Amino acid sequence: MVKNKLSPETIFGSKLTKQEVMRMIQETPGIYARYTGLSERLQKEFVEFCMGTRGLNLTYDPMFKAVFDPQHFPSRLEDFLSLCLGEEVEILNALPSESSRLTEEGSLLVMDLLVRLKSGSLVNVEIQKVGYLFPGQRCACYSSDLVMRQYSQVREQCRKEKRAFSYQQISKVYTIVLFQNSPREFHQFPTEYLHYARQQFNTGLKLDLVQEYLLIPLDIFLECRHNISNRLDAWLTLIASDDMERIQNVIRAFPDFGEIYCQVFQFRYQAEELMNMYSEALKILDANTVKYMIEQQKEEIEQQEKEIKQQKETIEQQNETIEQQKLELEQLKEELERLKNLSTVDA
Question: Which portions of this protein are annotated as coiled-coil regions (predicted)?
Answer without folding.
Answer: 287-342
